[in-house]
């Protein structure tokens, strides 16, 4: 009688030991594809990459070593000119301002918009409005802001707002540009004021005629009347000494000539104002007895030119103004990316911080911002790369008189290569220099992407 022996079960597989890979077919790569098949698919992309990226870079490096004609080898002379030419140094300085200011401000605004719009019902609509400028091309945005920064307040929105605010706190001059006749008693006394050559006497009316008054400044004004002689007081009339259709007598009030109301009249003795008043609606004025023997002065505030706003596109403000246009376009881009990152922030951490007694500012600064650091880095790096290549916005917005002050490297590259003084050797040197500036930012971005993949 035979005895059956129990066969022990096989041991469980060791998880640390990987199974041997299945044998690949002969001539196949790691993905199970023949190398020549993969090469056939990659060849068009590689050819396009070489034609559009590798060849231009190589040719630019080669061309930067030759003169404007392209035949004379000059070595590093073109690179020396890049760092010695005044226009190129201005462009480099402006690029530094762009890289520091534009990405940081756009990212900060995007962060603020993304955080605040989470707490309102109409947040989606607000995000849509802020992001909408991204749908506009740089060309269209440049044309829009060229009009926004127009010097004339009747056309430029920025100056229309600024002039409105200014005129709210500082009353404009009643009759800008007006002045007396060259042969009259009133003469210029410096700083835009006009003063009589003879002293006024109490009881004797004074005539102070003015010309060059704008018709719109006297529309609806009363007709001027001669002032009455008042004992012990200095009286007079200020009016527009001009009759429609010509005629009339200079220095005399003719029928139909308009009174100038609201004009400040000062009595001056020894360069000291002893009395002051303003003209009535009929142009007349009355000064006290202290004005007897004083000369009468019409201050410059009566005739100062109307405030015309800020010269946004002047040499000193053109670069900040263009940066403002860029931020208007790209703050929405930053907001959308940051809002997407904010949606992935664990709400438990925010609530835990509030339970521990942190206020909203502390939650934002100590929890929200650190958790959004990777997203903020993406936005800043992307905008830095974009800013280093800025060209069309500057070229369109900056007027010819301020173009050199707003110059950037990409614009200088275009001007050096295709402008009036064509020197493609210098233009190629600028292109290579610009590539070297962009390369560190690109490397940082690549490393960041690799770290994100390894998580």
From TrEMBL:
Biased composition (Pro residues): 7-22
Keyword match Membrane: yes
Topology with respect to the bilayer: Multi-pass membrane protein
Stretches the record annotates as Disordered: 1-28
Domain ABC transmembrane type-1: from-to ranges: 92-445
Keyword Membrane in annotation: yes
Keywords, ordered alphabetically: Cell membrane, Membrane, Transmembrane, Transmembrane helix, Transport
A GO CC annotation given for this chain: plasma membrane
Positions of transmembrane segments: 36-57, 96-116, 128-149, 325-345, 371-398, 426-446
Protein name, UniProt field: ABC transporter permease subunit
Native source organism of the sequence: Streptomyces luteoverticillatus
């Amino acid at each position: 009688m035979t005895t059956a022996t129990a066969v022990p079960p096989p041991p469980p597989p060791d998880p640390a030991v990987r199974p041997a890979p299945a044998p690949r077919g002969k001539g196949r790569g790691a993905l199970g594809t023949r190398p020549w098949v993969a090469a056939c698919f990659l060849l068009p992309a590689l050819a396009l990459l070489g034609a559009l990226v590798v060849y231009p870079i190589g040719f630019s490096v080669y061309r930067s070593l030759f003169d404007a004609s392209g035949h004379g080898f000059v070595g590093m002379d073109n690179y020396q000119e890049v760092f010695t030419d005044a226009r190129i140094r201005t462009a480099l300085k402006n690029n530094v301002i762009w890289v520091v200011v534009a990405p940081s401000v756009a990212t900060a605004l995007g962060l603020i918009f993304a955080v605040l719009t989470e707490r309102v019902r109409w947040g989606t609509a607000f995000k849509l409005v802020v992001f909408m400028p991204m749908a506009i091309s740089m060309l269209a945005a440049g044309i829009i802001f060229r009009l926004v920064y127009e010097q004339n307040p009747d056309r430029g929105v920025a100056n229309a707002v600024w002039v409105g605010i200014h005129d709210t706190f500082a009353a404009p001059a009643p009759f800008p540009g007006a002045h007396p006749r060259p042969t009259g008693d009133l003469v210029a006394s410096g700083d835009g004021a006009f003063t009589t050559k003879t002293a006024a006497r109490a009881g004797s009316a004074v005539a102070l005629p003015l010309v060059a008054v704008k018709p719109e400044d006297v529309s609806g004004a009363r007709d001027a009347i001669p002032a009455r002689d008042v004992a012990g007081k200095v009286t007079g009339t200020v009016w527009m000494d001009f009759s429609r259709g010509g005629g009339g007598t200079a220095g005399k009030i003719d029928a139909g000539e308009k009174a100038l109301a609201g004009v400040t009249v000062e009595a001056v003795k020894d360069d000291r104002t002893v009395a002051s008043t303003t003209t009535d609606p009929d142009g007349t004025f009355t000064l006290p007895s202290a004005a007897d023997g004083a000369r009468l002065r019409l201050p410059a505030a009566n005739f100062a030119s109307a405030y015309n706003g800020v010269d946004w596109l002047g040499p000193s403000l053109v670069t900040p103004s263009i940066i403002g246009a860029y931020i208007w376009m790209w703050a929405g881009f930053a907001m959308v990316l940051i809002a997407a990152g904010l949606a992935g922030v664990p709400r438990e951490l925010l609530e835990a911080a509030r339970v521990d007694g942190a206020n909203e500012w502390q939650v934002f600064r100590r929890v929200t911002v650190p958790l959004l650091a990777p997203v903020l880095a993406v936005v800043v790096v992307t905008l830095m790369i974009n800013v280093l290549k800025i060209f069309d916005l500057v070229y369109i917005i900056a007027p010819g008189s301020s173009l050199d002050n707003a110059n950037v490297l990409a614009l200088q590259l275009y001007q050096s290569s295709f402008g009036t003084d064509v020197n493609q050797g210098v233009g190629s040197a600028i292109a290579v220099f610009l590539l070297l500036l962009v390369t560190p930012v690109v490397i940082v971005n690549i490393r960041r992407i690799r770290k994100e993949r390894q998580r």
